[in-house]
Amino acid sequence: MLYALFDHDRRIGESASTELGAWENALRAGLISDIPVADEQGGQVLPPGLRVKRVDEKSPPRPE
Q1: 63, part of any domain
Q2: CA-CA distance, 33 to 59, in Å (whole number)?
Q3: How far apart are CA 61 and CA 48, in angstroms?
Q4: Which residue(s) pair with 21 in the sheet?
Q5: 61 in a domain, yes or no?
Q6: How do strand 50-55 and strand 10-11 relate by DSSP bridges?
Q7: Total structural domains in the chain?
Q8: What angle do CA 7, 58, 25 make, to 5 degrees?
Q9: How far apart are CA 56 and CA 64, in angstroms?
Q10: Where is this region: Disordered (predicted)?
């Protein structure tokens, strides 16, 4: 199972074998400034539109 970072429905990050790995890839690539942390209610605090989700293959991110 692979994961990648998405901005709304557009994939912007490289794939990784874990969700944390996808966030770390995005951090190294300069796509985010910090790895999200949980808020007091246990939900993640994310920039609007960004999320990590499962991808089916190691295809590269779509160009802008």
Answers
A1: no
A2: 24
A3: 19
A4: none
A5: no
A6: unpaired
A7: 1
A8: 55
A9: 21
A10: 39-64
Of the candidates 64, 38, 57, the residue with the CA atom closest to the CA atom of residue 23:
38
CA atoms within 13 A on the CB side of 57: 2
Q: How far apart are CA 64 and CA 54, in angstroms?
A: 20
Tokens of 61: 């991110």
Token pair for 47 = 């920039």
What is the reported pTM? Answer: 0.74
16-22: long-range pairs with CB below 8 Å, 24+: 19/52, 22/52
Task: State pLDDT tens for residues 26-54.
Answer: 999 998 887 776 656 656 566 778 889 99
Instruction: Tell me the three state secondary structure of residue 41.
Output: coil
Helices then strands, each counted (H, E), the chain: 1, 3
